[in-house]
Amino acid sequence: SEMLSNSAMEAQESMGAGAWLGGGGGIRMAPPSKDVMRIFISTDNHLGHAEDNEMRQDDSFLAMEEVFQRATGCEADFLLLGGDLFDKNKPSRNTMVKSVKMFKKYCLGERPVALQPLALDSIGDKHHGGFVNYEDPCMNVSLPVFIIHGNHDDPAGKGSYSALDVLWNAGLVNYFGKQQDVENVVIRPICLKKGNVKIALYGLGNMRDDRLYQNFCNHRVKFERAEPKEEYFHLMVIHQNRFQRSQQGKDYIPANLLPEWLHAIIWGHEHECRIDFESEPSANNGTVRISQPGSSVQTSLVAAESIPKHMAVLDIRLGKHGEYQTKHVKIRHQNVRPFIYEECNLSLQDPKPKQNEEGVKAFLVEKIEQMIQRAKENNPDTPECLRQPLIRLKVEYTDYPMLHPRGFGQIFAGKTLSNWKVANPSDMLLFWRKSKRLKQEETSSQRQNRPVEILEGVDMNTLIEEELENMEKSKKSGLQLLSRNEILNAVKEFVDKDENKSIGGMVASTMKELEELVGNAETYKAFEDENDCLEKLKPFLEQRQSKKQSMGHFHTESAENILLTVKSSEQMDCEDHQNASDPDFPEQGPSRGQARGRARGKTAATTTRGGRGARGGRGAAATSAARGKRKARSTRDDDSSDSNKVESPVDDQEQYVSYGAKEKKPKPPSQNRKPASFGKSALDGGVSGEEEDVKTTQRSAQKGEPTTGKRKPAANDTTGDGRKTKAGRWGSMK
User: Fold this and answer.
1) Cβ(729)–Cβ(718) under 8 Å?
2) Residue range 451-468: average pLDDT?
3) How confident is the model at residue 526 (pLDDT cuts 50, 70, 90)?
4) Spatial separation of the C-alpha atoms in residues 300 and 616, rounded to whole Å
5) Cα–Cα distance between 379 and 388 in angstroms, integer?
6) Cβ contacts of residue 522 below 8 Å, gap of 6+?
7) What are φ and ψ of residue 522, in 5° steps?
């Protein structure tokens, strides 16, 4: 508790022990039996979000602590986190200290771990990995955590390390899903066993969406499937765009690119909570089930973030006929600040407000008061330290005067934080109006001074690309030596990951390559002026462009070995993924990957492009100019009263979700001692496991042996599976 603010500590003390499992939480879950593997699932925790905001500085940590308390309370076998544990690529010391304290508090202890490792090649990196932290004799882990990186905490800089590498090397988490070669992606599973349940856990940390999409199209993504396939429950966790965000349609990963033999997918990165499993078409005309837990804290004030936040428990067991059965129980977050989002059109109100500032102000004050009251009614179990809700009212003010949002917010802000009625008084209102088509002769300064509503939906990449295209069209300031895509990627590195020398490194690398192409110094002496220089360099520029196209990538390197990912626009285009089976797709060489990130706008005081972006961000008000506002998907109705009450699994055969029955075959006595074997099952031209074996370094754990170090063998469950509860239902489905 010492890591939290005083108000957060008071909230925890008032709720007392066991508040999460019973009482206000309403959770009743029986411990899992020795033949049931229980996985607790959460994604996009964004630790450290809004840490400079005195009101909201503890929100992300309170939500994460609830995840830990729920996971330990239901005696989960392990905690699975789907990326974006941290909000920033370089978390502050304050955030790192709080995070380490929390992981030590809940992940270390005397409770034995019942998981038996079978194959661990995808854990860690090439220098340090291949084992789980609960087998370390120097650690006493009671709750294993398996985690992938997201676009906020992805590897970057020298050594390509992430903040998660710090936790991994400290023995607090098992970090997997990190790719060494982003142009030839190989996804290997972590194979674990508990009782008669075997699980193959596949992880893919965040990569740049367009690059990963292109890799799928060019047959450069391979899954090494655990074999025999029927003996494992195949679960994947991924952190990418799930939905299309651009007209090109290559900035997301469709489900039909993923293999059909996956039983379930946990999808991170999308903050809208769609935690119930949804069936979607997969590769080879198959079907895959996807759960999208969403974020545990609001990072942006959009409609998708206003849906109640949930985490989940996934129980896996073997059925009577040898098929795998699952039960998925969603649990509503209590430690999340209430958030109410609404839109209104002043012209459509009945009665209409007066067309002056006083009339608009009176109407909006009444509207905000109603939203605050609804937030209290819909969230009765929210701790006292989170009682001030987040409010966002999007107002179409066509034919009406616009109020100053910050000045209006002072009505709901008291002298002290405890007297505030809302948590975000300065940005409750978002004004917009329908705009006429802009004239082509509009100047650059006029475009920058447009109202913020016209810029909604435009992200940072679009803005930079437009400016670079304008430079290329200009005869006086057109790009002559540098590539547009090289500049774009260098700027993204600078903004998203704080790589201060990325732009300078890109320029230095380009000039170094040109010097190598030009050759001796006598050529430079022949240059009479700038135009003559560019004219004589033209053949060398064409030679450089041709060389890059033949290599299939652009690669730059600064003096400090900072690697940037840059690629020509021609190579960014690939055929539609539906033609992925075409053997004539051109192969391209490797290049370094670059994950997507959030803008850090720091010039809110000097720009009109304020507000927050589609999924939030890491900067101040100017973030919306960097990310834009994502189109809000339809909001689902959520029954808050029912979602708070989940109970223990009912052990009824007809209440499970089944995955393909199989016939039980007698096994030779030595088979149980063999480690998991892998077979290539790559999409789009891959080789099946029956056709070719993949030699993989594996670790085998003999059946019945306790784990190393201080680990004790798991005690047999004396409760059995027959405990009656009121929890979610076991469904049956072939």
Assistant:
1) no
2) 58
3) low
4) 4
5) 11
6) none
7) -65, -30
**Distances 127 to 121, 123, 164, 699 between C-alpha atoms, Å:** 12, 11, 15, 17
* Tens of pLDDT, residues 409-440: 999 998 888 889 999 999 999 999 876 554 44
CA distance 249 to 252: 7
CB atoms within 10 A of CB 525: 8
What is the chain's mean pLDDT, rounded? 74
How far, in Å, CA of 699 to CA of 120, rounded? Answer: 7
Residue 341 has pLDDT above 90, yes or no: yes
pTM over cut 0.85 = no
Q: How far apart are CA 79 and CA 134, in angstroms?
A: 13
**pLDDT at residue 416, as a whole number:** 85
The alpha carbon of 210 is separated from its chain's Cα centroid by a whole number of angstroms, namely 16
Q: Is 276 exposed, middle or buried (0-12, 13-18, 19+ CB in 10 A)?
A: middle
Helix or strand or coil: residue 485? helix
Residue 614: the pLDDT is 40
Active site residues: 152
DSSP 69: H
**Spatial strand order in the sheet of 233-239:** 116-119, 189-194, 197-204, 233-239, 264-268, 287-292, 274-281
Q: Tokens 């808050």 correspond to what residue? A: 640
**Two structure tokens written together for 665:** 């075959």
DSSP string, 611-661: S--BTB-SSSTTHHHHH-PPPPPPPPP--HHHHT-EEPPP--GGGSEEE--
